[in-house]
Design a protein that fits this description.
- The chain folds into 5 domains: 94 residues, Sandwich (Immunoglobulin-like); 157 residues, Sandwich (Chondroitinase Ac, Chain A, domain 3); 99 residues, Carboxypeptidase-like, regulatory domain (Immunoglobulin-like); 92 residues, Immunoglobulin-like (Sandwich), CATH 2.60.40.1120; 130 residues, Carboxypeptidase-like, regulatory domain (Immunoglobulin-like).
- The protein is 3% helix and 46% strand.
- It contains 1 helix and 47 strands.
- Strand 21 and strand 22 form a beta hairpin.
- The chain is globular and about 80 Å long.
- The N and C termini lie far apart (54 Å).
């Protein structure tokens, strides 16, 4: 669980990004922050008419659109993530959400999710016909890439992170056009060790496609996304080159011994499946190690196929009406064994889904939905038995049966947002973070002309309020009594009173850097300082958008701005914050070259995202954090 400080800082980053653009005021809140789902921008699906089971008028049905939410490890929405469906990219909104209509006649939807600074992932959901107004819900959690490690691409390299060792031959990497990579490169790593890490951050279900036969369920020993970069471009192994990957085997996996082999799988984002590649050998090292050979870099998984299993049929219903809830995601987390067979099930039009798990194992089930929250004190525990059974087969025993109740009842929390002079602040985002059984959840609203605001909330014991506006921040923790929960709507007399939330300006830190563009003189690269170029420092990770109608403030909250001096240098004061990231945008979008004329940093990845050290400093007094050198192509300055 996140510490209070981490929660506050993550929220400050997110609220800062939201403050840079329009905020939709939501009357509902659930495990999916910002439940105001944007229009998918596609024609409405054709409606069918099914007979009413009670003999009344026909009920209009449609193929449910996919309401997908993307969030990070802190539970915060990731704005600007690319969600690709059938080759078309859809960007998540400021609440991390996107709504996508299924293709005509599709039986399933498979989407790929990418966001800068995170390992890629996927989501697969069935296409369900149900009543108009329903949605198929999906929550995708992205794993952040770790700190990049630099190395010489022209020499043999041994890189190690979290006990995983990568041995790379000299001159092993090529760029996107197949050219050999020279000079410095970087490696990023995002790993999941099943005995200790959260498997909900896997890139897709643990289903493997063997070289022959039907797909198999898998139990993971270790999985990781390993990527190589240079100047922001992703690299790959040259044809015919292999890298050696050594994965530690946790002591929790007691069935392995030196000389055993374990299947090695790579993840195919297009089909959301693990594809068999080769075998890893178990060797002795610092404990047992799975030694593997990789011919390309992506998500890799050391897994063994699962044997017999149990299954559980889950029915999800509305706690108030008893009606089935279609489009709910049911997640199962293993309690008595390592790994999960099926990370989710999605309910059909009758609110039913089925989840496999290890025979005689114990799992905890929880449900997610865009409009509902699980109406219980904790996940539902299911204990298997000795009789093998599977959702996909009629052979063996019967599946266990359970029911999960969900509710959409809401209470509300209201208050007033003030500045340091006790004056009402209008138009500022106010974010409330609270804990649900499925992890962090949040609600969002915007202060009115008189500074008042109201958040719609489920029954919770504590809400953390955060707002960031005009370089000032406010934070407060409000205690509530979930046992005395009263259903109420914003604007009614039944809202809990949060009192005053005061925006305060604080101390500053500062950053500095320099902008050059490089040209060739006498066969040597020469840096040319670029003066009078705009510099914007944004809170968090923002999308570097360009377009005729895109203004700098549209990208997110600007913490500081200025222009480069005659030497190409800049130094800017920022509000003092700890352990947060900023995006540095220098230059202007070019009429012909677009975002290519926004500067990139001269570190190997070219990234313009920086961690702020949080040291009190100012441009006037000195001690600014050095961001280094940035570059733009000379073509950007030619007439």
């Amino acid at each position: 669980m996140m510490s209070p400080l981490s929660k506050r800082l993550s929220l400050m980053m997110l609220v800062g990004a939201l403050a840079g653009g329009p905020v939709a005021c939501s009357d509902t809140a659930d495990e999916h922050p910002n439940t105001e789902v944007p229009d998918a921008g596609q024609p409405d699906a054709e409606l069918d008419a099914d007979p009413d089971p009670d003999g009344g008028d026909p009920v209009e049905t449609r193929a449910l659109p996919l309401s997908l939410k993307v969030q990070d490890q802190a539970g915060m929405p990731i704005a600007g993530a690319s969600v690709i469906y059938q080759g078309q990219a859809h960007l998540t909104d400021l609440g991390g959400q996107v709504l996508i209509e299924p293709a005509a006649g599709a039986e399933t939807m498979i989407v790929q999710i990418e966001a800068e600074g995170y390992a890629p992932s996927s989501a697969e959901r069935p296409v369900v016909e149900a009543a108009e107004g329903q949605q198929m819900s999906a929550l995708v959690r992205l794993l952040a890439l770790g700190e990049a490690q630099s190395f010489d691409a022209e020499a043999p390299a041994t890189l190690e992170v979290r006990g995983v060792r990568i041995n790379l031959p000299a001159n092993a990497l090529v760029d996107g056009e197949g050219n050999p990579v020279v000079g410095q490169a970087e490696m990023t790593f995002a790993g999941i060790e099943p005995s200790s890490d959260d498997l909900r951050f896997m890139p897709g279900p643990l289903i493997g496609v063997p070289s022959e036969g039907d797909p198999v369920d898998l139990l993971s020993v270790y999985m990781a996304d390993i990527s190589f970069w240079q100047n922001g471009e992703k690299l790959q192994l040259a044809e015919g080159i292999e890298a050696q990957l050594d994965f530690p085997i946790s002591q929790a996996f007691s069935d392995y011994a030196v000389g055993d082999t374990i299947p090695f799988w790579s993840f195919d984002l297009q089909q959301a499946r693990w594809v068999y590649e080769s075998e890893c050998e178990v060797i002795a090292g610092d404990g047992l190690v799975a030694s593997c050979r990789a011919s390309h870099f992506s998500w890799w998984n050391v897994d063994k196929p699962l044997g017999t299993r149990n299954c559980v049929e889950v029915t999800v219903i509305d706690a108030e009406t008893g009606e089935p809830i279609p489009g709910a995601t049911v997640e199962g987390e293993a309690q008595s064994y390592l790994g999960r067979v099926a990370p989710f099930g999605a309910t059909d039009d009758m609110g039913i889904t089925c989840v496999d798990f290890m025979r005689e194992g114990t799992i905890e089930l929880s449900a997610l939905h865009s409009f509902y929250y699980q109406n219980a004190d904790g996940p539902l525990t299911v204990v298997g038995n000795e009789t093998a059974a599977s959702c996909q087969s009629e052979e063996g025993g019967e599946c266990l049966k359970v029911t999960i109740e969900m509710s959409n009842a809401r209470g509300c929390l209201s208050g007033i947002l003030l500045n340091e002079d006790a004056e009402p602040v209008a138009g500022a985002p106010v974010y409330g973070l609270y804990e649900m059984m499925t992890g962090p959840a949040s609600a969002l609203t915007e202060s009115g002309d008189d500074g008042t605001y109201c958040l719609a909330l489920p029954p919770v014991d504590e809400v953390e309020l955060v707002s960031v506006h005009d370089d000032a921040a406010a934070q407060a923790i409000i205690s509530l009594d979930s046992d005395a929960f009263t259903e109420a709507a914003c604007g009614s007399d039944g809202c809990e009173d949060a009192g005053e939330l005061v925006l305060e300006s604080g101390s500053t830190t500062c950053v500095e850097g320099i902008l050059n563009s490089y040209t060739t003189q006498d066969d040597e690269y020469v840096g040319v300082p670029r003066a009078d170029q705009p510099v914007y420092i944004y809170l968090g990770d923002v999308e570097l958008t360009c377009g005729p109608d895109v203004n700098p403030e549209d990208r997110g909250q600007i913490l500081a701005q200025g222009i480069t001096d005659a030497d190409g240098g800049f130094a800017l004061d920022l509000p003092l914050m700890t352990d947060v990231q900023v995006t540095v945008v220098i230059g202007e979008c070019h009429e012909q070259f677009g975002r290519e004329c926004l500067a990139f940093s001269n570190q190997p990845t070219g990234s313009v995202i920086f961690d702020i050290e949080g040291i009190e400093a100012s441009v006037e007094d000195g001690g600014c954090q050095e961001l280094g050198e940035f570059s733009t192509p000379p073509m950007c300055y030619q007439d």
